[in-house]
Design brief:
The complex is a heterodimer of chains A (about 325) and B (about 250). Chain A is mostly helical and about 325 residues long. In chain B, a hairpin with a 2-residue loop joins strand 7 and strand 8. Chain B is globular, with a radius of gyration of 19 Å. The two termini of chain B are about 25 Å apart. Classes of the chains: A mainly alpha (about 325), B alpha/beta (about 250).
């Protein structure tokens, strides 16, 4: 989409981002303790997890594949990480284990989709089920908790130069994804594969490899969040990331309504994640019953996709 | 006569029990604009699929400048200098012009040792230059292809072929979906290609288009070539007669 002129253009491109800002001001004024630094830090943690998972999902989405396994893979990566830390493996090994699990799951998705020709919607559901099952197998259904190596916990709880590391992890993931998509050949090939894979293939782009890569990167993001989640919470349980499935996808879809309307984009995913995280927190602080969040989430998903469709003048999903 | 740029020799193509091409020879010499015409089902599309590397022939072979080649894919054909512009143009509509021109052969510059980034400025400029060679003035190559007219899109597809240094451009029904003004623009594009020394194979239903831009015409009927002659001296009506009846009207013969 080219940026449209005038106020209408600004609203079409930034309308939902502005709405998110208004929502922030609303909670700041109305929700008790919303602006309290401890609370904002809590929100930022949630937002970090949502954002990194969303960026990963978005990379798969860029190559026109759906990854519905990232939350289950994230949980499995978390219990593998937790198990390693729990059994006194060094932090580096625990981190490598968690990220490795995520990457392997992503590669598996890539193989299922590009080699065995299973639609990603189905393939990743199967992967999700397998990952969930393995997570319960590893833990025996209980959670790992304990007095863990502080060096490991610092991966999620620490600060660097006064900045919480979770923010740095998120910023790094976002900058890497942006650099990949906007500045490199590989990124352009990913985008073309998603936009017009026949055209890309005829021009010599290795589209199958690009699709596999997009799915692998989604798995990598899930693995990283598994590690960070475990370190932040000082525990690991199967299914601990299950709620992030819908919230993260909602963040991506909401992000598709801004900056580059109708298209999955990294800045949009960040703002989307911030909005969803803030909404959950603000509603709780204002004393709304827990189910209001679920209802709002559903409304946001439907409204976002409808907005994207109106920006594109056609359905936002060709999958 | 000199070695043809492209020679299709004894091409047969069977799809199961159906024989779409029954031994077609076609020589295309450098600098020609050869139109391939024929009724629906005559074998035009099949011939083009074989020449573009999309389908392998059941029998017969292809030569480029006298060397036998086997095209396993359109990419092989591209690397041999044969670019095909498909009916649906194979463009990514939402992506900018420059990306569509350069996809698959991007220009990069080194950012840090080992890290190359897209040289967008150079690609924008070169995309503009390719389009200028086609007499299309496009100041902003950042525009998405979907914002262009049908004729301009055709120009973007041709610019991509030029970027591949294609010596032979195959155009499959380039005016089929276009209005009068846009069709005229596409014919101008073909004339510009011809003037620039690029060889063109034009598949068309439109006899007026063929007479307007082609130097030679090959007529297919039921999978065989029934005529192959210079266009000069032929009218669109003569050509239509040739396609339908299989021979020229008495006055012209």
């Amino acid at each position: 989409m080219t940026a449209r002129e005038g106020i209408g253009g600004v609203l079409a491109t930034y309308g939902t981002a502005i709405a998110a800002l208004i929502l922030f001001c609303f909670f700041a004024a109305m929700a008790p303790n919303f602006l309290n630094p401890t609370n904002l830090l809590n929100v930022l943690k949630q937002v970090s997890f949502l954002a990194i998972l969303g960026i990963g999902f978005g990379l798969a989405f860029t190559v026109a594949e759906l990854d519905l396994s990232f939350a289950a893979v994230c949980s499995f990566a978390a219990v593998v990480t937790g198990g390693l830390v729990h059994h006194k493996f060094p932090p580096v090994a625990a981190m490598a284990g968690g990220i490795g699990v995520g990457l392997c799951a992503g590669v598996l998705n890539g193989v299922l989709v590009t080699r065995l020709k299973i639609p990603s919607l189905i393939a990743t559901l199967a992967t999700a089920s397998i990952a969930t099952g393995l997570g319960f197998a590893v833990t025996g259904g209980v959670a790992f908790v304990g007095r863990w190596n502080p060096a490991f916990l610092a991966l999620g709880r620490g600060q660097l130069l006064g900045v919480p590391v979770l923010i740095l992890w998120t910023a790094s993931a976002a900058l890497l994804a942006l650099f990949l998509l906007k500045q490199t050949r590989l990124g352009l090939h990913l985008v073309f594969t998603g936009e017009a894979d026949e055209a890309a293939r005829l021009a010599g782009v290795k589209t199958r490899r690009m699709k596999a890569l997009g799915l692998a990167l989604a798995g990598l993001g899930a693995g990283l969040v598994g590690v960070l989640l475990t370190a932040t919470l000082n525990s690991a349980a199967p299914n601990m990331a299950a709620d992030y499935l819908l919230t993260s996808i909602a963040a991506v879809l909401l992000g598709m309504t801004m900056f580059e309307p109708g298209r999955c984009n990294v800045p949009g995913t960040l703002v989307g994640a911030a909005t969803i995280g803030m909404l959950g927190n603000g509603l709780v602080l204002m004393g709304a019953p827990y189910y209001v969040q679920d209802i709002m989430l559903g409304v946001i998903i439907v409204a976002s996709v409808a907005l994207s469709a109106s920006a594109l003048k056609k359905a936002a999903f060709g999958i | 006569m000199s070695t043809p740029l492209l020679r299709l020799a004894g091409i047969r193509k069977r799809y199961g029990a159906v024989e779409a091409l029954s031994g077609v020879d076609l020589d295309v010499h450098a600098g020609e604009v050869v139109a391939v015409v024929g009724d629906n089902g005559a074998g035009k599309s099949t011939l083009i699929r074989v020449a573009s590397g999309a389908h392998a022939p059941s029998e017969g072979h292809i030569e480029v400048e006298g060397r036998r080649v086997g095209f396993a894919s359109p990419l092989d054909a591209l690397n041999a200098g044969v670019a095909t512009i498909y009916q649906d143009l194979a463009l990514a509509a939402r992506q900018p012009i420059w990306q569509n021109v350069f996809i698959g052969a991007e220009r990069t510059r080194r950012l840090l040792p080992g890290i190359a980034v897209l040289d967008k400025r150079r690609m924008r400029r070169e995309a503009r230059d390719f389009l200028a060679r086609l007499k299309i003035d496009m100041a902003d190559t950042n525009r998405p292809v979907e914002s262009l007219s049908g004729g301009q899109r055709q120009a973007v597809a041709i610019a991509r072929a030029l970027r591949w240094n294609a010596r032979l451009v195959i155009m499959d029904e380039p005016t089929a979906a276009l209005g009068v003004a846009e069709s005229r623009q596409v014919l101008d594009l073909i004339r510009e290609l011809h003037r620039g020394g690029t060889t063109v194979i034009l598949i068309s239903h439109n006899m007026a288009d063929v007479v307007a831009v082609a130097t030679r015409v090959a007529v297919l009927k039921n999978g065989r070539k029934i005529a192959d002659r210079p266009v000069e001296g032929l009218s669109a009506d003569d050509l239509a007669h040739l396609v339908m009846i299989g021979q020229l009207p008495q006055k012209a013969a």
